[in-house]
Amino acid sequence: MNIIAWIVLGLIAGAIGKAIYPGRQGGGILSTMILGIIGAFVGGSIVNLLQYGTIQLTAATLSIPGLIVAILGAMIAIFIWGLITRNSAA
User: Per the structure, how many domains does the chain have?
Assistant: First the structure.
């Protein structure tokens, strides 16, 4: 059940993150979902680091605070993806 929740959270967080993030990002629904899932893990790990002082690969939960953390993580993932694809295109 957790994987389905992560996919739903990733889809929502990726779509909202792409809508909020300035500029134009390419990609379809699959890249949105993947960046959202990565964002949920990035956001969950950052929150875990700030709360407990340890780095663990954890995802945000399917809740309002978890969604906010996942959106912020998705925006970080979109930023990093933009850096990677911009440097490889040059």
Answer: 1
Task: Dihedral sign for Cα 84, 86, 89, 90, please.
Answer: negative
Length of the chain in residues, anyone? 90
**Any residues with CB less than 8 A from the CB of 18 and at least 6 apart, and which?**
25, 32, 35, 74, 78
The dihedral sign for the CA sequence 34, 20, 57, 8: negative
CA–CA gap between residue 72 and residue 35 (Å, rounded): 11
Range of the domain at 70: 2-21+29-89
Tens digit of each residue's pLDDT (9 = 90 or more) over 22-39: 777 666 777 777 888 888
SS3 57: coil
